[in-house]
Write a structure and sequence with these properties.
This is Chemerin-like receptor 1. By secondary structure, the protein is mainly alpha-helical. 81% of the residues lie in helices and 3% in strands. A hairpin with a 2-residue loop joins strand 1 and strand 2.
Length: 355
């Protein structure tokens, strides 16, 4: 049984933070450093939640309910929805880490939490890829864009993206499981309990599928789109005056900066099956890279406000409209209340006069 637990222990994926557990090879100084990393990663998670929930909620509110429905607002709406859903589940993971990696929420939430995290990652990168392709076609092939770039076609693409992201996140629902380990319940990937080779093969396949489809292919696509835009759009004024170009580019760069370390450490983690020389590096790197990846979910709304002048104008106009409407309601309510009080006073005076 102990051998089985040790084998399963080596197979926990990044989202379970298995490498945070004490290792016999870890000295006291390294354990102290890992304790600092543990708290820094918790700060990153909490920052992502505190900043991301209201930020993405505002984007969803304005793009979904207040602003005119366009293809571009549809992309950003779904990108915000993906981040918002993930952040709603983040307190479960914060509790998991804060309780020294004890999962008291049951196997169903273990599966759901991991699935939502994977769904967010794939949906975000797929929507960013679609946005980049949309920008490229819109600026370099305006006739083609005008003919096919419709809300109806965009809705079809949105549905396809969500279905594809759900399919890519599906293995979490199948493999994720809970296990009693060192007086704790851990949430981990149960690839195969009795066949280490089969377990290792599944870990490699799922990791490389995640890296290739969820990172390398989108990265290559987005890079080609923006390089073509830079070289093909010869009139710089056309590129600079593009309403959404720089905002989208900033969002893509934020995604790459936040998710690149995560995927690099995911690949590096595969080597621990054969060589544990850099075990302590993974113990420190995986929590920080995962925290940085989570932080990406709160960055997009901040980038919209800081970079997009159109978003700023629309946001201020919408807030002003809401405040104006709220003040109008308060004013009307006060007027009605005053009228009711006057009416009641008048009726009382008439009653006293009649008596």
């Amino acid at each position: 049984m102990e051998d089985l637990e040790e084998t399963i222990f080596e197979e926990f994926e990044n989202y379970s933070y298995v490498l945070e557990y004490d290792s016999p090879e870890t000295n006291l100084e390294e354990k102290a450093h890992l304790g600092v990393v543990h708290w820094v990663s918790l700060v990153l998670y909490c920052s992502a939640f505190v900043l991301g929930i209201p930020g993405n909620a505002i984007v969803i509110w304005f793009t979904g309910f207040k602003w005119k429905k366009t293809v571009t607002t549809l992309w950003f709406l779904n990108l915000a929805i993906a981040d918002f859903i993930f952040l709603l589940f983040l307190p479960l993971y914060i509790s998991y880490v804060a309780m020294s990696f004890h999962w008291p929420f049951g196997v169903c939430l273990c599966k759901a939490n991991s699935f939502i995290a994977q769904l967010n990652m794939f949906a975000s990168v797929f929507f960013l890829t679609v946005i980049s392709l949309d920008r490229y076609i819109h600026l370099t092939h305006p006739v083609l864009s005008h003919r096919y770039r419709t809300l109806r076609n965009s809705l079809v693409i949105v549905i396809i993206v969500w279905l594809l992201a759900s399919l890519m996140g599906g293995p979490a629902l199948f493999f994720r499981d809970t296990l009693e380990f060192n007086n704790r319940t851990v949430c981990y990937n149960n690839f195969h309990e009795h066949d280490p080779d089969f377990m290792l093969m599944r870990h490699h396949v799922l990791t490389w599928v995640k890296v290739i489809i969820g990172y390398l292919v989108p990265l290559l696509t987005m890079s080609i789109c923006y390089l073509c835009l830079i070289f093909k759009v010869k009139k710089r004024s056309v590129l600079v005056s593009s309403k959404h170009f720089w905002t989208i580019l900033a969002v893509v760069m934020a995604f790459l900066i936040c998710w690149t370390p995560y995927h690099l450490f995911s690949i590096w983690e595969l080597t621990i099956h054969h060589n544990s020389s850099f075990h302590w590096v993974l113990q420190a790197g995986i929590p920080l890279s995962t925290g940085l990846a989570f932080l990406n979910s709160c960055l997009n709304p901040i980038l919209y406000v800081l970079i997009s002048k159109k978003f700023q104008v629309r946001f201020r106009a919408s807030v002003a409209e809401i405040l104006k409407y709220t003040l109008w309601e308060v004013s009307c309510s006060s007027t009605v209340s005053e009228q009711l009080r006057n009416s009641e006073t008048k009726n009382l005076c008439l009653l006293e006069t009649a008596q």
